[in-house]
Each structure stands twice: as C-alpha cells, then as structure tokens.
Amino acid sequence: MSEKSETRTWPNIFGFGLLMGAADAVPGVSGGTIALIIGIYLKLINSISTCLDFIKDPFSSESMPNFSSAFKFLFPLGCGMLCSYFIVTYFLIGSEDSPGFLRQDVTGPYIFAFFFGLVLFSIKEPWNLVSVPDFQHYFLAVIGVLMIFIYTRFTLEESSNSEVMLIVGGILALTAMLLPGVSGALVLLTLGQYHSIASSFHGGGLEPLMYLILGGIIGLFTFVPFMQYMISEYRDNTMAILTGLMGGSLITLWPWKEEYDVEGLSRNLEISEILDDPRFRLVSIITTFLFFACGIATSYGLKQLEVKNES
C-alpha cells in the first residue's frame, strides 16, 4: 500500500471521513484501520501534526501554506466522520427505550461479523508497509496482539462518569481512534462510558461531551507528535506493531457474545456454547457467516477504491 501526497477532491475526502466515522462507532474497529486500508493513514497523521505545529508557531514562514493544505484535507474528513458517527451510533446504539442493532441479540452477531471480516482481510495492509520483514517484526506483531488481549482482560465494570474519567476517556479514545486495531469506542466501552456518551451525543447533553473533547485535545498534542516520530524514525517496527493491534482487535469483534446490551465488554462464546445457545439457530449462524463474507468483500472494495484514487 502506498500513500498519495496529492490533494484529493473534497467529496472523496468527505467519503473517507464517512467510512472512518462508521468504523469509530463500532467497538473493536478504528478510523485508523480504515485510513490504512484506503491509503491515507500517513497523510492523516502528518496533516494533524502540521495543524498542531501551526498552533504552536502561527507566524512561521512555512506554517500558513502547510496549514492550509492540511486543513483542506482534515476539514472535510472531520465533517464526514462526525456525520457518519452520528448516524451510525443512532442506529447501532439507539436509546435506552429502543436499543440499536449492535445491542440486540438478533442483529448484534451480524454487525460484529461484518467488521470481523473487514478487519481480518485488511490485516495485511500495515504489514505491506514493512519493507523487509524479519523475526523482529514478527515478534512486534505478536506483542501487538498480546497488548489487545491483555487490555480486554481489564474491563472496568463500575466506572465513574466523573469529569476526570471523561477527560481520561477522551485522551485514550482519541489516541485509540488514530491507532489501527484499537477502537475509541472499545476504550469507552471498557471505561463504562460508551453507551452514556453515545446517548448524550444524540440527546444534546453537552457537558459530558465537552469533557470528552477536552481529553481528546490533550490526546492530540501528546500522541500525534509521538506517532509521527515513530513512523518517521521506526516505520517498519511501527507498522509491525500496528499489524498486531489490528489482529488483536479480532478478539473484541468475535460475533457471538454472552450479552450485547451491556455497558462493558461481554465474554465471547466458545463454539460449543454457540451451538447450545437457543439464540443462535442454524439460519442465524449461516447469516452471520454471510455478513462475515460481506465484510471481506467490503475490505476488497476499499482496497480497489485506494487503487482507483492512486490512478
């Protein structure tokens, strides 16, 4: 996969934002994953870093032209993400009285299966950016998988919705949204804040969102420069770890879970439990695999979209 430096049209960039926002709404998938698949990840990190540099030194001779170019990329991308996130969380999460598709036993497995197939087929994308894979890169990829595995073992069942926790959630969620394989929605889910934030996003409760945004801004100024440095100086190693993070995210995207309408990570069911669970009949299992195949097809389609944009 290659990164293109030329400016794309606003409708295209807005469309990329729609895809990234939809991914960020699902626990286990991140906008960074989609950015890698469609070939804009490095441009995303560099553009955010350019804007941060402009804020720090707006009077530099190079700041304004670079900022203008970065803004023309990030603004339509961000608009697309916000629109998509609003729509997708409305249908996937819903309200307390009307749970969305992701919170229902009937449709939950299908949504997770779709993204399971999407991510599984896309794991090779960051790995393709490793110039000459060797033992060190394979080892780092395994470390990435283990990081997700360990993280999902420490779900906070009873988290406070205090201002401090919301700020911490914003810092971690923003960081996760930019990391392929680590989802901002997953972070909020493990902190016990996902459903409440999604509900306030639709219900007009601005106060929790303001604290979350404050945390996100802090995360921008701390994580993005670090990520840009890692990509610049240790690109192969960084992409190997990102490959492992994407692979590890499959743990949280396993379609069959003990519960779906919960605030926190639910236990994945084993094969024998799936066959014995009355919720998952043969038709349901077959349909789940069909959605899995749709996820793979979508990943392939996104890759073709990247190739088309490069030509």
Poorly predicted tracts of residues: 1-7, 156-161
Backbone structural class: mainly alpha
Query: Between the first and last Cα atoms, what is the distance in angstroms?
Result: 13 Å
Helix coverage percent: 55-70%
Q: What does the largest sheet look like?
A: none
Residue fraction in strands: under 5%
Radius of gyration: 19 Å
How many DSSP E strands?
0
The residue-averaged pLDDT reads 80
Order of helices and strands: HHHHHHHHHHHHHH
- The total of helices stands at 14
The global form is globular
Structural overview:
α1 crosses α4 and α3 crosses α11. The chain is mostly helical and 311 residues long. It is 69% helix and 0% strand.
Q: Could you provide a short overview of the structure?
A:
By secondary structure, the chain is mainly alpha-helical. 69% of the residues lie in helices and 0% in strands.
Task: List the defining traits of the structure above.
311 residues, single chain, disordered N terminus, mainly alpha
Topology (elements, then pairings):
Elements: H1 10-24, H2 31-37, H3 41-56, H4 63-92, H5 108-122, H6 124-127, H7 135-152, H8 163-177, H9 184-190, H10 194-203, H11 206-233, H12 235-248, H13 271-276, H14 282-310
Helix pairs in contact: 1-2, 1-4, 3-4, 3-11, 5-14, 7-12, 8-9, 8-11, 11-12
